[in-house]
Amino acid sequence: QIATSLSGSCFLLHPFDSCPSISLMSFNGQLTCAPWNCECAFMRQRGCCCASNKMFELEETTFMRMTKLWGKLTKLTDSIAANYTHIAFTATMAPTPDCFGPFTTNVTISYNNILLNDGHGYNPALGVFTAPRCGAYVMSFRAYSNVGSPTERLYHKVQMMKNGEVVASMWEANREDMEDSGTQVVVVDLKRGDQIYMELMYGRSLCGTGAQKNIFSGYLLYPTYENWVAA
């Protein structure tokens, strides 16, 4: 029990809170714990105020919600990162009754029989792989040709291109074999949007493609994390 005789207004000493202006000319009793409690201000008992209790409850509730949201965000980030690093493709040339070529200019080979295209980086209509993100990629191709007769000339040159520049190539020119094949595997550093594709040199041809032995493949070896935002 306290006895109070005050004139004027009672204020809660807090940057944002104040008691309503009241006249306490003669008060004899215990101050109740109302949302704005003068006793809390006078006695410096912050924990007893209903307003403080509600604030602490809100603080705890907000913290718990933020913790749950952070956990969900972490799972979502991991899921996106996993999907974004699953990049791989394999495609073969579709069967043709005749030879592919010769042409009067270099021609991009369209490997339009897709066996795998995780990340959707390979465009079968154009025969072009576009890097979805930065990183080191393993790219490979196999060039196969069968002219059908030992007397025919086996004559082809296939080259891997990166943004118009030659990365690797393979060629054959002889009349000793009626069929031949070769494989090249390279590791290339690609930025997002870089393009890799295969070209058949002008004047050359690939024959006997019905066995799907001409293959173009690639996959992301590891991403470049320092360019995660830009990638």
TrEMBL record:
Keywords: Secreted, Signal. Residues 82-227 form the C1q domain. InterPro entries: C1q_dom (IPR001073), Cerebellin_Synaptic_Org (IPR050822), Tumour_necrosis_fac-like_dom (IPR008983). The keyword Amino-acid biosynthesis does not apply. It is found in: Secreted. Its main location: secreted. Gene3D superfamilies: 2.60.120.40. The keyword DNA damage does not apply. One of its GO terms (biological process) is maintenance of synapse structure. It comes from the Eukaryota. GO terms for cellular component: extracellular region; synapse. PANTHER family: CEREBELLIN 18 (PTHR22923:SF89), CEREBELLIN-RELATED (PTHR22923). This is Cerebellin 18. It comes from Myripristis murdjan (pinecone soldierfish). The lineage of its organism: Eukaryota, Metazoa, Chordata, Craniata, Vertebrata. The gene is cbln18.
